[in-house]
Design goal:
- The complex is a heterodimer.
- Chain A has a single domain, classed as Alpha-Beta Plaits.
- Helix content of chain A is 12%, strand content 19%.
- Chain A has helices at residues 18-21, 54-58; strands at residues 5-7, 27-29, 41-43, 64-68.
- Chain B has helices at residues 24-38, 72-82, 94-100, 102-110, 151-154, 160-165, 181-199, 214-217, 221-235; strands spanning 2-5, 44-48, 63-66, 87-93, 116-121, 170-177, 204-210, 239-243, 247-248.
- Chain B is an alpha/beta fold.
- Classes of the chains: A alpha+beta, B alpha/beta.
- The A-B interface holds A 2-4, 10-11, 13-17, 19-21, 36, 38, 51, 53-54, 56-62, 64-70 and B 1-7, 11, 15-16, 18-26, 29, 180-181, 184-185, 214, 220-222, 225.
- Strand 4 (64-68) of chain A pairs antiparallel with strand 1 (2-5) of chain B, so a sheet runs across the interface.
- The complex binds thiamine diphosphate and iron/sulfur cluster (SF4) (3 copies).
Chain lengths: 75, 250
């Protein structure tokens, strides 16, 4: 499945603002360290994401892009 | 998959210098989205101030001028009068706008200059290391009020939005907050309105935004959002204080 939410990890400052706003609780702070020296926020359970954009709207650092599945055209 | 959220086109790819979780970044994005949605990137001119947002011109892909401390509304006045077809906004902190630049802000409003001010109220001087601002809350500890701000000695927080709304030259005056998604949505609506009023030539517009400074407040970014709601909003009520349609709301 294509990703619904994409984190540009090397922009992330690990501030954790996106973590509590996710209604399905799938965002976590990774153990690895990014180019800026922070632990980046990440999502692995893409299938649980509902493309609500909450994380992207609270992120101060333009880390997150959100996608939603194309509607199937009938017929 | 269809993309439903992306970086505004009127913003550059630069990673900001702001501290982790500082809501300056959210305010920037809301301005960028507004410029995109109104399709005005090629005629927008920003004026950066002195404070943490001194480098704002690095993050917007529009023309920008950097003003000396507090003087952004005066610089914006000059730009707008020489280029009336341009859309001119300043981006100023509370040390910049409500302290050293109080006179410039008030007089630009008094003259009804057709400019927009994005005013970031984080109740502290961020860039210089957390000194008291005129907007600092009573009891709030800063490096210059280690025992907390006391009314008897330092006066009480200044409410710029309420004060500017009393001026006939001001067309739109509002205060919103960046501490959660519903409030970010309202703040965005107010920023877009302020730019739209400028496009319609309605006069001076200002949106004050309650913002965080986790670094100098000594809190985590999420605790800071909470503090805006529990403490700042008691002193700084949200809403529109003046609109071109209804005038001052008392
Ligand atoms: C003429 C002058 N006086 C003082 C300063 C020092 N100074 C730099 S930024 C600042 C205040 C910044 O606070 P604010 O406007 O609230 O912005 P923030 O950094 O919190 O975003 C001060 C006093 C200066 N640069 N120039
Ligand atoms: S888009 Fe919504 S559901 Fe998906 S990760 Fe972000 S907050 Fe969670
Ligand atoms: S809000 Fe943005 S910068 Fe902060 S942790 Fe989440 S993705 Fe990273
Ligand atoms: S010092 Fe405060 S206002 Fe300045 S970038 Fe850091 S958190 Fe933001």
């Amino acid at each position: 499945m294509d990703k619904r939410v994409v984190f540009d990890e090397n922009r992330c400052k690990g501030c954790e603002l996106c973590v509590p706003v996710c209604p399905v609780d799938i965002i976590f702070i990774a153990d690895r360290i990014n180019k800026l020296g922070y632990h980046p926020a990440t999502v692995t359970e893409q299938d649980k994401c509902i493309s609500c954009m909450m994380c992207a709207k609270i992120c101060p650092d333009l880390v997150i892009e959100v996608f939603k599945p194309e509607k199937k055209v009938a017929g | 998959m269809k993309q439903i959220f992306a970086k505004p086109q009127s913003m550059t790819d630069k990673v900001s210098h702001y501290c982790p979780g500082c809501t300056h970044g959210i305010a920037h994005r809301l301005v960028g989205e507004t410029i995109d949605e109104l399709g005005i990137a090629d005629r927008t001119i920003g004026v950066a101030s002195v404070g943490c947002s001194v480098l704002a011109y690095e993050y917007f892909d529009v023309d920008f001028q950097q003003a000396s401390h507090g003087r952004a509304p005066a610089v914006a006045t000059g730009i707008k009068r020489v280029h009336p077809e341009s859309i001119v906004f300043t981006y100023q902190g509370d040390g910049d706008l409500a302290s050293i630049g109080t006179a410039e802000a008030i007089h630009a409003a008094m003259r009804g200059e057709n400019i927009t001010i994005i005013f970031i109220n984080n109740a502290i001087y961020g860039m210089t290391g957390g000194q008291m601002a005129p907007t600092t809350l009573l009891g709030q500890q800063t490096t210059t009020t280690p025992e907390g701000r006391r009314f008897e000695e330092m006066g009480a927080p200044i409410r710029m939005a309420e004060m500017l709304a009393t001026l006939d030259g001001a067309a739109y005056v509002a205060r919103f907050s960046l501490h959660d998604i519903p409030n970010i949505t309202k703040a965005k609506r107010a920023i877009k309105k302020s730019f739209q009023y400028q496009l319609e030539g309605k006069g001076f517009t200002i949106v004050e935004l309650l913002s965080t400074c986790p670094t100098n407040w000594g809190m985590s970014p999420n605790e800071s959002l909470e503090w805006v709601q529990t403490d700042m909003m008691k002193v700084y009520p949200l809403g529109e204080f003046k609109t071109p349609e209804e005038g001052e709301k008392k």
